[in-house]
Amino acid sequence: METRGRMTIDAQGDALLLAGSIDESAALHELIGRATAGRLVLDLGGVTFINSLGVRDWIRMQAAAQKADLKVELRRVAEPLVHQLNMIIATRGNAHVTSFYAPYACDACGREESLLIDAVINAAALVKLEPPAMTCPECAAQMAFNDFPERYFSFLSS
Ligand SMILES: [Zn+2]
Predict the structure, then answer these.
(1) Ligand 1 geometric centre to CA of 146 (Å)
(2) Which listed CATH number (3.30.750.80, 3.30.750.24, 3.40.50.10610, 3.90.550.10) goes with 8-157?
(3) Which residues surround the ion ligand 1 when the cut-off is CB under 5 Å?
(4) What's the confidence (pLDDT) of residue 38?
(5) What is the per-residue pLDDT for 99?
């Protein structure tokens, strides 16, 4: 996974893969023109950072998508973006989040990991603020959710 550098956009299957830092150079408005059949699918698993100008452009992109009547799906939303979705309601737009990363920690071996949660399969549990059970890839013990569910999952209840 990329850890620094400007955001890149790559088409992969039906999705546009965003990676790197989202800042004022990210040209998020270009995404709107790359929607197909009224759908804009963004894979955000490689996003490592977003600054305040990136957030501003992200909100504009969401507004433009709504204006253009696009169905926006966000997949594999990385933790830095989940924090923005939780803090700033306008960043959510009309987007549908189908999966996202969340912090887990293993009490047995100390491993900390960002794990992918399927928001569709786990929808009922997430509404009740119950983090899905995850197994430690290191020692196979059950991992504990490493944030406050009522805070981390709040973007799902908009
Ligand atoms: Zn472990």
Answers:
(1) 13
(2) 3.30.750.24
(3) 106, 108-109, 111, 136, 138-139, 141
(4) 96
(5) 98
Q: Which stretches in the chain have pLDDT values below 70?
A: 1-4, 158
User: What is the distance between the alpha carbons of residues 68 and 119, in angstroms, rounded to a whole number?
Assistant: 25
Number of Cβ within 10 Å of residue 102's Cβ equals 22
Measured distance CA(33)–CA(40) in Å, rounded: 9
**CB of 128 closer than 8 Å to CB of 121:** no
131 DSSP 8-state letter: P
What per-residue confidence (pLDDT) applies to 3?
46
| pTM for the model | 0.93
Question: Could you tell me which residues come within 8 angstroms of residue 31 by beta carbon, excluding any fewer than 6 positions away?
Answer: 9, 16, 40, 42, 61
